[in-house]
Amino acid sequence: MSLPPGFLDELRNRVPISQVVGRKVIWDNRKSNQAKGDFWAPCPFHQEKSASFHVDDRKGFYYCFGCHAKGDALGFVQETENVGFMEAVEILAREAGMQMPARDPQAAKQADRATKLAAAMEAAVAHYRLQLKTGAAAEARAYLDRRGLDASALDRFEIGFAPGIRQGALTALTGKGIPEADVVEAGIATRPDDGGAPYDAFRDRIMFPIRDARGRCIGFGGRAMDPNARAKYLNSRETPLFDKGRALYNHGPARDAAGKGQPLVVAEGYMDVIALVQAGFGASVAPLGTAITADQLRLMWRIADEPIIALDGDKAGLRAALRLVDLALPMLEPGKTLRFCLMPEGLDPDELIKARGRDAMQAQLDASEPLVRMLWRRETEGQVFDTPERRAALDRRLRQAIGQIPDQGLRRHYGEALADLRRALFRPAAQQGRDRAPWRGRGFAEAQMPLAETRSSALGSGALSAEDLRVMLILATLCRYPALAPRFETDLDRLAPRHADHAALVDLILTAEAADDAAMTAACTAAGLGPALESLRSMAHLRINPILAGPPDAARAEACLTEEFAKYHAERALKAEMTEALEDLDHLSEGDTRLGRRLNHAVQRRLTAGRSAGSDMQGAVSEDTDALSDRLRALIEARVWEKKTR
């Protein structure tokens, strides 16, 4: 069976050789430098104690300095699994989630066709380079000189020029024996829709060859010399060789530089990459003038674990960064992330280096922000959070964003980082400089981190109101049954704990997305809330509660939470109504019987609610509400509105 062109390249890109070999060997961590894709282990093909078997993850090859075995991921599978080539391809394809192509008898012919197209592209590179030295390219050479590209840079990046001649490249390549059909199919020339004679795809443009990871020229980028041209930069059209969504400019050299320890810098355009490389940042690439695609992001992560996205310091650059956040979140995994380096306003990397030098660019890279901060910036910058509704909306957006992260542990760490940022944003200014200052605010988004002295606090001493006890029952139940949290998300948002530890637990329950009790306990420990959870579970009235002490029963727990939240919200509503009624006494006038009826109604509602809820409700009623009820009842019995004012 023959495979279509590009299938094996895609397969090798998707499955790192270290992942394949790692199933058969134990890496020598003292000798390996996994961050750079450099792995060493005892050879699986011959008996040895030393680690002489080397795997280069970026180049995709292995080599044993003892027995001289060598090959790629497919060869390793063939040798270790004792299978043929196509069977090895099928094994890796399943691992990569790629569907094996249908048997295609034309695949061999297509592979031969790709070889011929690659030859046409190399001939075009030579032709364009030669044209840059002609008189027709004088303006182009002057432009490149103004941009700081000397002869060595022109040679290094193989920069050329396409004269403004309708059939210049076509005539030159066919004159060397390359068929016209190959020139057209490679994207060097274009055949008009009306069936007329082909013409050059690039005219009056500075030409930048685009090579794949193996060094083959697969396309071109052309920069127009005419300021009125419809497209300042023009890429080759899609061809059997070129898919701009799966290619990076300067891919091969950047991979080699990254393998030597340089950070991978992702810029927007060709000139930015050239300027960065000339300044010493050899591991620099660009996504060919388009928004970064998922395939390009995978290519970057094959080169480096933390690419630095260096975008232009304008609104378009910021928008591109924010779009990339959405693309990256569902693809994140432990060890694979992005950093963002936003240039000073109005400057791109090329301009920054020319204006301020290499050190200025290095300083920008050193100050690059992690992806989590870019996510936070997107959701908060330029906004005001002066109401509970706006804060709740922020929390919901953040939960939805990090909910896209597939790895549960990584998702939890993102939740913790965002919780820290929320606390810093919503903490009153008077508390910004005080460590562990007591918090008197309301709402989980405003809570500080728990106190270290949890056991000696009010939570441990038992100095709690009835409302606190109800909150604690709700939190302890949700910590044991965290999978119920989404069902009560709205109720949790309305919860207003009086204690910072309770508020922090609410925050964690909403963000941790733990599946069970053990996962929730681990999340609390990781977030520094272990003592708070332990104190919660050690409370006497919770230890004997059947929902918490008995065997797991999610249905019963859900019913309990439904009832407790209803009581909590009802009690707070009644308290608010009675407080308002008492405030109305300040405006009492003689003969105001309507106020009397209103006060009586408030008390009766309070007493009726207590009786209908049973002994549990009556025993857990807030002391403050009781006091309000007693005072209102006394005023009603005295019929204060009938007294004469004096």
Automatic annotation (TrEMBL):
Keyword vocabulary terms for this entry: DNA replication, DNA-binding, DNA-directed RNA polymerase, Magnesium, Metal-binding, Nucleotidyltransferase, Primosome, Transcription, Transferase, Zinc, Zinc-finger
Enzyme class: transferase
GO molecular function terms noted in the UniProt entry: DNA binding; DNA-directed RNA polymerase activity; zinc ion binding
A biological-process GO annotation: DNA replication, synthesis of primer
Names of required cofactors: Zn(2+)
Keyword Zinc-finger belongs to the record: yes
Catalysis: reaction(s): ssDNA + n NTP = ssDNA/pppN(pN)n-1 hybrid + (n-1) diphosphate
Zinc finger (CHC2-type): 43-67
Domain Toprim residues, every copy: 262-344
Function: RNA polymerase that catalyzes the synthesis of short RNA molecules used as primers for DNA polymerase during DNA replication.
Family that this chain belongs to: Belongs to the DnaG primase family.
PANTHER family: DNA PRIMASE (PTHR30313)
Binding partners and assembly: Monomer. Interacts with DnaB.
Name used for this protein in its record: DNA primase
Organism: Roseicyclus marinus
